[in-house]
Amino acid sequence: QVQLVESGGGLVEAGGSLRLSCAASGFTFSFTGMGWYRKVPGNERELVASINSVGTYTDYADSVKGRFTISRDNARNTLYLQMDSLKPDDTAVYYCKAWVVDSWGQGTQVTVSS
């Protein structure tokens, strides 16, 4: 059974940092690229960062480039998103996604106050 469990969200002031984690199980984590998405009510889910299966290639949405860092630990089946210099516009529910799995976790809420 595929499981993606996001954690690490919370309330932070603008300029602050958070580190999100995504614990994956039920599939071969090290064989697939992964991504972090975020969703604000009324908007489409937005891909903010992606990483290949071995962690050697990453890509970011322009809105987070230079502030967010995606990484992974294949030995722990865990995906991370380090978020620095947070802005109120980063407020959203954040989800992780495996490219080969058509499943979403429950997400973790990130709220950035101004």
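(ticket continues) Second input and output from the same batch:
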Amino acid sequence: QVQLVESGGGLVQPGGSLRLSCAGSGFRFAWYAMSWHRQAPGKERELVARLTSDGGNTNYADSVKGRFTISRDNAKSTVYLQMDSLKLEDTAVYYCNADWRIAGRSYWGQGTQVTVSS
């Protein structure tokens, strides 16, 4: 059974930091590109950051460049999102995704809430 379990969300003040984790199981984690997406109330889900299976290439949404860092530990089947200098507009539910485009496979986690508020 494929599972992606996010953790690390919570309430933080503007300018603060959070580190999200997403642990994968039930599939060959190292074969999949991993990404974080977010969805704020009333808005569409958007890509935040993506990391290739070998960790060699990353891409970030313009809104988070220089503040967020995606990384992975294939030995632990875990992907991370380090979020620094958080802003009010970063408030959203953050979702982890695993994708293997060639095979047409994509899996989603259940999401973790991040709230930035003073």
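Agent notes: The two ends are 40 Å apart (CA to CA). The mean pLDDT is 96. Closing as not reproducible unless the customer responds.
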